[in-house]
Amino acid sequence: MNVQIDISNVTLRTERLTLRPWRDTDLEDLYEYASVDGVGQMAGWKPHADRDESRGILERFIEGRKTFALEYQGKVIGSLGIEKYNEERYPEFGEKKCREIGYVLSKSCWGLGLMPEAVERAIRYLFEEAGLDVIFCGHFLSNSQSARVQEKCGFRHYAYDTFTTKIGTVEDNEINILTKEDWSAGSGRR
How far is CA 161 from CA 73, 89, 96, 171, in A? Predict the structure, then answer.
């Protein structure tokens, strides 16, 4: 079952990152990375056409209270959302406390190991503080970087699926999961 998540008063830190709620003042940083070709397409959305589009997304992030801004060296360089997983598609998890995570990172920060660092910290928060039993995370089969992040963080294959994106394409998708038991046993910890 999907549990309620509210990160509006949550700030998480790693060696290099701060995961925190979005602020109105983050508009320029959001637009800077979300307007770059190749970033949004990895998650199924087009690059932001203008600041007004980014402002709408920023407002949804703030109001939704479930998406972290990823701050690196004083600048927001991505996001990590704690979304609802598809309970209809995966009814076998009806008795478990679950959510799904999704993430986006500025193209200028690809290859620095920042996203595994952010995901690992979010996992710890979700299991230790939010009390989840299972975390879902998916990626398009064409997105090998996201697949690698999930592998590094201890997620394991659960199912293949298709995903209809916001831009109308249908992508082959792999659904991975990480259980609290597996994480506690060390499969997701470095």
Answer: 37, 10, 21, 9
* β-strand partners of 80: 68, 103
Query: How confident is the prediction along the chain (190 residues), in pLDDT tens digits per residue?
Result: 999 999 999 999 999 999 999 999 999 999 999 999 988 888 888 999 999 999 999 999 999 999 999 999 999 999 999 999 999 999 999 999 999 999 999 999 999 999 999 999 999 999 999 999 999 999 999 999 999 999 999 999 999 999 888 888 888 999 999 999 999 998 545 4
Does the pTM surpass 0.90? The reply is yes
